[in-house]
């Protein structure tokens, strides 16, 4: 089974482009349905799946996410932040 899915910003026309490509390839087009299906299979909220699917867009966002999910955090000498196996 062939499948087409596409991601784009709101107003970019991505869903329309995805449907047209799927039609030309004689494939199925999947949009938000895939997020709902993944959430249902994992017994999670759709917002949780969307958050995992969309990576942080900046270095600061990635650092904030790492700090948020860190189980142990130590602030060392001169304010250095130490994560398990890493030093920022």
For the structure shown, list the relevant keywords.
88 residues, extended
- Give the fraction of residues assigned to helices: 40-55%
Number of strands: 5
Beginning-to-end CA distance, first to last residue: 45 Å
Poorly predicted segments: none
Order of helices and strands: EHEHHHEEE
pLDDT averaged over residues: 76
Biggest sheet: strands side by side, in what order? 3-4-5
Query: What is the percentage of strand-forming residues?
Result: 5-15%
Which structural class should the secondary elements be placed in? alpha+beta
How many helices? The count is: 4
CA-atom Rg in angstroms? 19 Å
* Anisotropy-based shape: extended
State the domain count: 2
| Largest β-sheet summary | 3 strands, antiparallel
Account of the 3D structure:
The structure is a single chain. This protein is of the alpha+beta class. It folds into two domains: 1-54, no CATH class; 57-88, no CATH class. Helices cover 47% and strands 12% of the residues. The protein contains four helices and five strands, in the order βαβαααβββ. The strands form two sheets. It has a three-stranded antiparallel β-sheet with strand order 3-4-5, with no helix packed on it. Strands 1-2 form a two-stranded parallel sheet. The protein starts with a strand and ends with a strand. The model has no long low-confidence stretch (mean pLDDT 76).
